[in-house]
Amino acid sequence: METLVVVSHPEIEKSDTQQFLKASAASLSQVVWHHLDSRLPFDVTAEQQAITSADRLIFQFPLYWYMAPASLHQWLTDVWLKQFVYDARGGLLHGKSLGFVVTFSQSATAYQLGGSVGFSISQFLTPYAALAAKTGLTLLPPLTIAQFANQTDLEHQQLLVRYQQYLTLDHPDRPDEQAQWFIDRLSGNADTQLLADQLAAQTDDIDRLRLTLHELKAGESE
Questions:
Q1: Does the record's keyword annotation contain Nucleotide-binding (predicted)?
Q2: Which distant-in-sequence residues (6+ apart) come within 8 Å of 81 by Cβ?
Q3: For 65-122, what is each residue's pLDDT tens digit?
Q4: Cis peptide preceding 127, ω within 30 of 0
Q5: How big is the CA angle at 88 (ends 87 and 93), to the nearest 5 degrees?
């Protein structure tokens, strides 16, 4: 699966968050980093080819006044032309998925009912959900990053894992795929093979437990 990370940020070199994410993605051979602000004015043919070549699109940006920076809107306006993304029969981007990596300086709890912002990140992303529906894209739950500068080293390490999984897994929120991701990276190394085997065994045990619970629930409904 090839992932196109579409980054909208006007001052990316000054952003510790974006530089961290760029470094985190650098080792992933199937991931293409695509910084919009450095590609202005857009070569529409080249941009459309990049979209066509990708299996997954990621819109990655900081939240500015509850919106993405201007370059993402400009890119959508210039590149996502009607004859390219949909026609009279429907969306032309079927088979591709669309995810979001959204960063912000407030706490995560601010973006919920009763929080200081009072609205969720998903609500701010609603226009992109409509865009996905129109063009045939499958939506992924967003990956949100709150207050990166205040995070500990351990939290940064956890974010690196979450980010790489989000870019590469078919279903990044599924525990079985997350576990397999770790197993794949631990296998083949003498120092970590035992840990990989133990993790695989535990994953199998969890799968069997889920099957047992499913059968029990099915029996209760009969």
A1: no
A2: 44
A3: 999 999 999 999 999 999 999 998 899 999 999 999 999 999 999 999 999 999 999 9
A4: no
A5: 35
State the amino acid at position 168 in one-letter form.
Answer: T
How far is residue 83's CA from residue 170's CA, in Å, rounded to a whole number?
A: 28
Q: Is 28 exposed, middle or buried (0-12, 13-18, 19+ CB in 10 A)?
A: middle
* Spatial distance between the Cα atoms of 150 and 154, rounded to a whole number of angstroms: 12
Query: How much is the pTM?
Result: 0.84
DSSP secondary structure of 150-181: G--HHHHHHHHHHHHHHHH-SSTT-HHHHHHH
CA distance 184 to 182: 5
Residue 136, amino acid: G
Helical packing angle, 175-186 and 153-168, nearest 10°: 100
